[in-house]
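The instructor's notes for this session suggest beginning with a concrete chain rather than abstract definitions. Hand out the sequence below and ask the class to guess, before any prediction is shown, which regions might be ordered.
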Amino acid sequence: MIYNLILTAGIGIISFFLKRSFDKLDSRASKSDVDELKEKIEHADEKYASKAELRELKKSIEKIESTIDFLKENTVRSNDFVRLMTRLESKIDNLKRE
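After discussion, reveal the predicted structure:
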């Protein structure tokens, strides 16, 4: 009877540690999962910009915005251009008549 009790306790302890070991193995990622994650990380560079690239893009956008503001302030709009050209043509016509 004591022999059966010791044998049952021994088998219980061994099965406890085996179950714990298998649970740890099951919780770990398989090689295919790891390879898939590595591939995703390698391709992430193609999809996303780094912080340095974002800073460069922001600087470029700021330059473009300042250029657009300069053009808005210092250029003639098409309606204004047509009006000025019409006025100039009428002045030239008036000079030719005289």
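Then share the key points. The radius of gyration is 40 Å. The mean pLDDT is 86.
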